[in-house]
Specification:
By secondary structure, the protein is of the alpha/beta class. The chain has one domain: Hypothetical Protein Ychn, Chain: A (3-Layer(aba) Sandwich), CATH 3.40.1260.10. The protein contains 4 helices and 5 strands, in the order βαβαβαβαβ. Helix 3 links the parallel strand 3 (53-57) and strand 4. The two termini are 13 Å apart. Part of a sulfur-relay system required for 2-thiolation of 5-methylaminomethyl-2-thiouridine (mnm(5)s(2)U) at tRNA wobble positions.
Length: 95
């Protein structure tokens, strides 16, 4: 399943999100969700310890001036990658 986090991690129920993640899922951080990718954020450790791939949308990072502050544990992807993720996963959950 493709999970997208579009709200600030401080504005969503991370515990519920974590309980819904399954091995092989992808989590794409978009819009204000990219705040979860900040280096040193507690959310980076929480999310990267799950059996999933965590990515952040480059355009949303750039729009917020955060590109140089992202953890190396987070993959930075473009819109083409976003489309590929939606094709790869039959279902999607937005948080």
């Amino acid at each position: 399943m493709l999970h997208t986090l579009s709200r600030s991690p401080w504005q969503c129920d991370i515990d519920t999100l974590l309980s819904m993640l399954r091995e092989g899922d992808d989590l794409l951080l978009i819009q204000d969700g990219v705040l979860a990718a900040l280096e040193g954020s507690r959310f980076v450790e929480i999310l990267t310890n799950a059996p999933i791939t965590v990515s952040a949308l480059k355009d949303d990072l750039d729009a917020r001036g955060l590109s140089g502050q992202i953890s190396a544990k987070i993959d930075v992807v473009g819109y083409t990658d976003f489309v590929n993720l939606t094709v790869t996963h039959a279902s999607q959950m937005n948080w």
